[in-house]
Amino acid sequence: MILSRSEQDRYDRQMRIHGWGTTGQRKLKASKVAVVGVGGLGCLSSLYLAAAGIGRLYLVDKEKIRVSDLNRQILYCESDLEKQKADTARKKLETLNPATKVEAVLEEVTEGRVPAFMEHVDVVVDGLDNWRTRFIINEHCVRKGIPFVHAGVSQFYGQITTVIPGKGPCLRCIFSKEPLEIEVVPVFGATPAAVASLQVMEVIKHVTGIGRPLVGRMLFIDGEEMSFESVKIERNRDCPVCAQGEK
Domain for residue 133, yes or no? Predict the structure, then answer.
């Protein structure tokens, strides 16, 4: 992957980071990342992934924009109401960075259907608001050996961990039973913004090889107390997802 003069100028500040340089930027340009769910988390994560120079972004979401989304889903405005989230986000991200190729996938991920392109991406980013789909994505990523950056938010609280198959626990190790689904999750807009920014850091670290990802650790954020806590998490040797074939 060759960087044009325009790209070198655009990414100059981040390429100055120790260990990044042109080599790291070329890795980003060659990478493919899927953002599943383009809501509060997905809007912010896809925005910064495009700004950083990820080569190809897949935005997976079949929902339309509602007025109640606008307190946190920053890629949308009132004139976008009732438009498709993924397609609206695609147009805005391509305006932000034409060098990033963005594809809108207006599909629902189900038990029997995960979009075919997701077998070939480098990282999957969790922008979801329900556990059922998260566990489907988790199982798919474990089976295909694809890193999965999980996050969840509620009110002023958030959590994030990175699942790298074979190197740490998967989401099912951590949550042996599915958490209770909440029909309408209360959330302050800056909460997913903060957590999604950390998701982007995890993606960039994985692709460039810089730093230590949140593998085997869950980071909890309490915005009310402004506290951050990292908790060690272990693989479950009896996990029905990631322990298969290892006994």
Answer: yes
